[in-house]
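User: For my dataset I need records formatted as: sequence, then structure tokens, nothing else. Please produce one.
Assistant:
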Amino acid sequence: MKYCNKCQLEIRDDSIVCPLCKAVTEDLDGVKYESFYPDANIDYKKFHFLKRIFLFLSVVAVMTSVVLNVIFYTGFLWSLITIAAIIYLWIGISHSLGHHINIASKILAQSVLGSLFIVLIDFLVGYLGWSVSFVIPSIFILADLAVVILILVNRMDFRNYLLYQFAIALLGLFPMILFLITRIGHPAMVIISAAVSLLTLIGTTILGDKTVKTEIKKRFHF
């Protein structure tokens, strides 16, 4: 059993430091006790070893796809899709696993990365416009709704999600701009995405009131 002089607390396991104040504990009776809690520490050596294995497998996948694409070339560089997919997975997973990264930031990053990946595929197959007409608007509609749900569930953290929500809403208008420039594809999802984005921007501004103005001034130093 351990004892913390600072907190005057008996600790019924073999903790070296006090769980409350992190001060070094003293041994009371010399008897060893099993910890009541599982070890939360990550074995970073194993983690980095697994990371290196997956990195090597990614390189193998890239090289294999390039070699096969060159050998059996039919006019379509499908290996670029494989390479882009692997890069997307590495960046996306690395960002998503960050413990201290805002959830709304993760949603924004995944939306942007996913959109770029989809546009690349569309261009590689001849740009039929389906990426701008359907997929990207759908991505930003879902992203908008996801951040709105986050705000409703965690209303105390409204400030932390505000700028990311504005960024996602503004990006949700981008498919409409692309559609007006290219005139390729169908406008239905593009219009819905733009409408959802505008409603999100207007709703946040009206409901947030002074909080929104204060946060924007603080962030952009107006």
